[in-house]
Design brief:
Layout lengths: L1 H19 L3 H13 L4 H33 L4 H143 L1
Helix pairs in contact: 1-4, 3-4
Length: about 220
């Protein structure tokens, strides 16, 4: 029993040393513990630890009973001394092995959590890099859009200036057209007036011709 406990303790100490140093063997040990904690593994491990704890408490109880018998009788038996030493050694070895098992479990848990956090940090860093690359691409695209916007604004200003010139020319042409229209209307009025005067003069001439022809006819008679 004592040899088995010593071998168990040395194996647990070797596992703790393997956990401390980052080697390829640590990955294998972690994978083995991961598989051991799957399925019925935790139940088996808890059962073994509980059995070991019960045996340890039994050894402690036997040692305490021997010590109480010594205190009551006052006689020290060599056999009882050997049994007491054996019980104390077994209980201490079992307690130390349980403590080392708890340390191995906690180290395994913390190493797994540390690896998960490192993976998450690497994923976050990759996302940040991708975001920065996308941001750089967006900034370049934004710069190109700004340049295109400035060129379009310059073209728009040129078109607005041309439009103002065309509107001014159109307004001046419209003003000239109105002036010519008014002038043509004046010419038409003047033409009508002259036409009426011409007709009046013709009628007066015709009346004079008639009067002259009538007077000539009277003189001939």
């Amino acid at each position: 029993m004592i040899r088995l406990l010593f071998s168990l303790i040395f194996a647990e100490m070797a596992l703790i040393v393997i956990f401390v140093f980052k080697t390829p063997l640590r990955k294998l040990v972690i994978l083995g513990l991961d598989r051991a904690k799957r399925g019925r593994g935790p139940i088996v491990i808890k059962t073994v630890c509980a059995t070991l704890f019960v045996v340890m408490m039994s050894s402690i109880y036997n040692a305490m009973s021997i010590h109480n018998r010594w205190s009551q009788d006052g006689d020290v038996n060599p056999t009882d001394q050997i049994l007491l030493a054996n019980y104390l050694l077994e209980s201490s070895l079992m307690g130390f092995s349980l403590f080392l098992a708890l340390m191995i479990d906690r180290l395994h848990h913390y190493i797994r959590e540390l690896r998960m956090r490192r993976k998450t940090m690497e994923a976050v860093k990759k996302q940040n890099r991708a975001f920065e690359d996308g941001k750089a691409g967006l900034s370049e695209e934004a710069k190109a859009l700004e340049v295109e916007l400035t060129t379009l604004q310059a073209k728009l200003k040129k078109l607005e200036s041309k439009l103002e010139e065309k509107t001014k020319e159109a307004s001046s042409a419209e003003a000239n057209a109105l002036a010519l229209k008014k002038q043509s209307e004046g010419f038409l009025l003047e033409y009508d007036r002259l036409l009426e005067e011409n007709q009046n003069l013709r009628s007066q001439l015709q009346s004079l011709d008639r009067k002259l022809s009538h007077s000539d006819s009277k003189k001939s008679m």
